[in-house]
């Protein structure tokens, strides 16, 4: 029986329902989508990443011409709306056939719609404000009263800035990539070298589009390009919906250094030219379900505009290896 998509964006979906939806898409759009990778969370949940392009059955293009976009969502468990936005991107590309748009079909879209499934399900079922993973902390032979690591403090860049307190919502982990969930993202970047040109991590709910760096106010050499792309998204959303996004470097906008972030890892370590956080405009982490569709549509306008800007104005960056002019 086909999956009923009519109510997909009328409610927040469970991890199991997301799996069913992706399975259905693979059946219905077998030439345009595949499960690109499949990891397992600490509690044993599948972490699926999909690859969408005009024909996934064709042999991959040469690395110099194969441009990829990597998008993830749900890195923080309580940010439910980001998972809906990621699913909406998949829905638009496939079910609305947006992958046929000229600028969109230049890319392979790699989408990780639920990065932290354990935390997400715990947030849905037990504690709405839960942020971290769900791995128990401390030695096995000791009472382990604290649980979880903030995935966005667990990447191997300026990691020492993060909190060392087990019970903190911002706990960085015992070491970089201590979590299966962040190792999975690291492995995705390694698979995509050097073709990944745009990394977008979806968060909520500050109405901002941020670029590196988060750990220092020292800007990367290509900050103006990233600012231009971020502003393209913000301008498109403002014109279409009246919602105003602020753009800038993460450390400047947040007014404090953040270590171990995914955008800094993507940019500084993996040499991805454009690495952005989009803090989706919503009413809190769990906006009313009646607003999900509207927020997803609004966010898609901004994301599409950023991709179009990258494709239209920065072809030299796309053709390059992604290793130049970043620092």
Structure description:
- With 327 residues, the protein is of the alpha/beta class.
- The protein has one domain: Zn peptidases (Aminopeptidase).
- Helices cover 34% and strands 16% of the residues.
- It is built from nine helices and eight strands.
- The chain has helices spanning 15-28, 80-94, 117-125, 180-192, 223-241, 250-254, 262-269, 292-313, 315-319; strands at 33-40, 46-52, 67-72, 107-112, 196-205, 208-211, 246-249, 274-281.
- The protein has an eight-stranded mixed beta sheet with strand order 1-2-4-3-5-8-6-7, with helices on both faces.
- Helix 5 (223-241) packs across helix 8 (292-313).
- The longest helix is centred in the last third of the chain and has 22 residues, at 292-313.
- It is globular, with a radius of gyration of 18 Å.
- The model is unreliable at 321-327 (pLDDT under 50).
- This is Zinc carboxypeptidase.
- Pfam families: Peptidase_M14.
- Extracellular metalloprotease that contributes to pathogenicity.
- GO terms for molecular function: metallocarboxypeptidase activity; zinc ion binding.
- Keywords: Carboxypeptidase, Hydrolase, Protease, Secreted, Signal, Virulence, Zymogen.
Topology, pairings included?
Blueprint: H1 15-28, E1 33-40, E2 46-52, E3 67-72, H2 80-94, E4 107-112, H3 117-125, H4 180-192, E5 196-205, E6 208-211, H5 223-241, E7 246-249, H6 250-254, H7 262-269, E8 274-281, H8 292-313, H9 315-319
Parallel strand pairs: 3-4, 3-5, 5-8, 6-7
Antiparallel strand pairs: 1-2, 2-4, 6-8
Helix pairs in contact: 2-8, 5-8
Cofactor: Zn(2+)
Family: Belongs to the peptidase M14 family.
Function: Extracellular metalloprotease that contributes to pathogenicity.
């Amino acid at each position: 029986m086909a999956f009923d998509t009519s109510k997909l964006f009328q409610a927040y979906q469970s991890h199991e329902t997301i799996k069913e939806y992706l399975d259905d898409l693979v059946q219905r759009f077998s030439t345009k989508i595949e499960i690109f990778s499949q990891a397992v969370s600490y509690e044993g949940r599948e972490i699926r990443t999909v690859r969408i392009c005009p024909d996934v059955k064709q042999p991959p293009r040469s690395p110099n011409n194969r441009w990829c976009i990597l998008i993830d969502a749900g890195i923080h468990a309580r940010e439910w709306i980001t998972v809906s936005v990621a699913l909406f991107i998949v829905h638009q590309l496939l079910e609305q056939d947006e992958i046929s748009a000229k600028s969109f079909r230049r890319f392979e879209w790699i989408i990780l719609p639920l990065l932290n499934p354990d935390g997400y399900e715990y947030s849905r079922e037990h504690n709405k404000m839960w942020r971290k993973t769900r791995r128990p902390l401390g030695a096995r032979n000791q009472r382990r009263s604290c649980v979880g690591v903030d995935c966005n403090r667990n990447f191997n860049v300026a990691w020492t800035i993060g909190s060392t307190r087990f019970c903190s919502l911002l706990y960085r982990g015992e070491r970089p990539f201590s979590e299966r969930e962040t190792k999975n993202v690291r492995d995705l970047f390694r698979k995509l070298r050097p073709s990944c040109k745009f990394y977008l991590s979806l968060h909520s709910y500050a109405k901002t589009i941020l670029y590196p760096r988060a750990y220092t106010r020292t800007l990367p050499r290509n900050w103006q390009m990233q600012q231009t792309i971020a502003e393209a998204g913000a301008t498109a959303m403002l014109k279409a919906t009246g919602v105003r996004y602020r753009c800038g470097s993460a450390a400047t906008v947040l007014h404090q250094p953040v270590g171990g972030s995914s955008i800094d890892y993507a940019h500084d370590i993996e040499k991805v030219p454009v690495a952005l956080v989009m803090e989706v405009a919503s009413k809190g982490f769990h906006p009313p379900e009646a607003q999900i569709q509207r927020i997803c549509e609004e966010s898609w306008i901004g994301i599409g505009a950023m991709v179009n800007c990258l494709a239209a104005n920065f072809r030299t960056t796309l053709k390059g290896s992604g290793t130049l002019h970043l620092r």
